[in-house]
Amino acid sequence: MDDVDVFEDALFTLFAHHQPARGDPGSAGRYENAALPAWCAEGCDKPRALPYWIPEASSANTLLFAHHQWDAGVLLADLIVAHAPIDVQGRSVVELGAGTGLPSLAAAACGAAQVRRAY
């Protein structure tokens, strides 16, 4: 281990570090939000939620960066579900990438007429 490695490893012990993503490659996730439509909780006693899958990290999908659920995707899903400032009801929506496609799932759940993904 050289001096640069020691320095880089020590930075995280000195400063707070926020990982801008959650979940592990190859795992399932759940986006929970009480403002989701009621059917998102039908047939169960769990909160209203949308399940999503985080793909395995592989050379085939490294350019997509879909091997985590990025915070930006969760924030966008929150804005879509809250209908403010984004109301997708009856509209066409195209997602230009947010990892696992959570904003697309939220748009579809909130009544978008058509949802497309960039890839």
From TrEMBL:
InterPro entries, alphabetized: Methyltransf_16 (IPR019410), SAM-dependent_MTases_sf (IPR029063)
EC number: 2.1.1.1
Record carries keyword Nucleotide-binding: no
One Pfam family, short name: Methyltransf_16
Gene3D superfamilies linked to this entry: Vaccinia Virus protein VP39
GO terms of biological process kind: methylation
Single annotated GO MF: nicotinamide N-methyltransferase activity
Keywords, sorted A to Z: Methyltransferase, Transferase
Organism domain of life: Eukaryota
Statement: the UniProt record of this protein carries the keyword Transferase: yes
Record's protein name: Nicotinamide N-methyltransferase
Phylogenetic placement of the source organism: Eukaryota, Fungi, Dikarya, Basidiomycota, Ustilaginomycotina
